[in-house]
Design a protein that fits this description.
5-stranded antiparallel beta sheet; 1 helix; 10 strands; about 10% helix; about 50% strand; globular
């Protein structure tokens, strides 16, 4: 996991990564969705996801990627820009840019 003020890189097993340059949302069973524009503010929450298993990855609302973890927490990546890329998913040689 690489965290900066304006970008976030999530690296997963098998050569899969998600580079985020938009906003994210974090939801747990005990808190409503919290939205973050500055990833430094979300750092303490994001690092708790290290070593957690993703049980599903779904596309929701136009452009939103939602990752559900094995402890019922969810990380949503929003497509919040019409002019620029919001995130990119790399799976080996395949690249999907949203």
């Amino acid at each position: 996991m690489c965290i900066g003020a304006h970008d976030l890189i999530l690296n997963f097993d098998g050569g899969v990564s998600v580079t985020v340059t938009s906003c994210i949302g974090f939801t747990s069973s005990s808190t409503p969705t919290q939205r973050y524009d500055d990833f430094r503010q979300a750092a303490c929450i994001l690092v708790t996801l290290i070593n957690q298993k993703i049980v599903s990855a779904e596309g929701e609302k136009p452009g939103t990627l939602t990752l559900k973890f094995d402890d019922d927490r969810m990380l949503s990546v929003y497509d919040d820009s019409k002019e620029y890329e919001s995130y990119a998913i790399k799976n080996g040689e395949q690249l999907i840019v949203v």
